[in-house]
Amino acid sequence: xxxxxxxxxxxxxxxxLLQAQVELxxxxxxxxxxxxxxxxxxxxxxxxxxxxxxxxxxxxxxxxTGIHPTKLSNLRRLMRVLTTSxxxxxxxxxxxxxxxxxRVSRLLVVDRxxxxxxxxxxxxxxxxxxxxxxxxxxxxxxxxERAAAMSLFEVAHGCTLWEAAAMDGTAFNAAMAADSRFTMxxxxxxxxxxxxxxxxxxxxxxxGHGAAAAAIARAFPHVKCTVLDLPHVVATAPTDDKLTxxxxxxxxxxxxxxxxxxxxxxxxxxxxxxxxxxRRCKEAIPARNVGGKVIIVDTVIGSAxxxxxxxxxxxxxxFDVFMMAADGVEREEHxxxxxxxxxGFTDYKITPTMxxxxxxxxxx
Length: 364
Description:
Blueprint: H1 3-10, H2 14-28, H3 30-42, H4 45-51, E1 55-56, H5 58-65, H6 72-84, E2 88-91, E3 98-101, H7 103-106, H8 120-126, H9 129-134, H10 138-143, H11 152-157, H12 161-167, H13 170-191, H14 193-196, E4 201-205, H15 211-219, E5 224-229, H16 231-234, E6 243-247, E7 259-263, H17 271-284, E8 293-298, E9 300-301, H18 310-323, E10 331-332, H19 333-342, E11 347-351, E12 358-363
Parallel strand pairs: 4-5, 4-7, 5-6, 7-8, 9-10
Antiparallel strand pairs: 1-3, 2-3, 8-12, 11-12
Helix pairs in contact: 3-6, 8-13, 13-15
């Protein structure tokens, strides 16, 4: 195509140019929305609205959260971002505005009675200095030859994500536990049949402090649940008489069980490492004709097809770039299939869910 033809195709009217500028700035300011959400979470604004009966004015919020009176106009600006983006809702004009929770901000309300899992720790972990500053090193990571064998996190911080988590994994462990409780409670309601066929034992590989395994043990008391993770992780796990914790390395050995669970584990690793992990899992389970299987809870990009909304599609690919920090990958089905075959599995079944992750059943 000639340069002249290209110029004609790219030619835009003044209105189109100005609209393109709006879209460009919208993409550039996307980080502000994340940080506004983090601020609202840190200030416990969702809890304040809930405590105030589900509706609150700016003055109510300031009094409930300890925000200084001189910051009231700035609080209005913060809430304007969060109502525009759907985190909260608002009725009334600026003078008498009343703020309420939406289905998004309800997930951030701490249930003092302990009956419902909240996801505030996940926001705190995702929108924090470590992951955010890591992404500032992408240009160097893509172009510097010295970074070829390093993760993006290493380039930015001089150590791996796992080394940093080993030094202080409090926020990370809290986020993973909150996600596991929330995800498994909902998946067990939606796809409980996947776990009903587990005969007697299940090992949760890379299961952290056992939140996912505990949810399974409560739903299926006949299943004996074991949690495998690195020794320093299980050493700080809370006591649970329904779970057995084992310190070890999933690359070396997985304890024998009728089923193996890998929830949000394989997306942390490159292809070759995933194959190694799944080979250890295959060694741990019995043959398919006696009920053995591996259950993977992870993202399968595009698995819901045309049923996916734009928020789901964009979140999947944003998460994929986010995972580059740890050298992780969010995968499409054809990428998963190659891993399964190479690890020695002959069959698999993917069950999409309404959330970000699918359930994959692997059979030897």
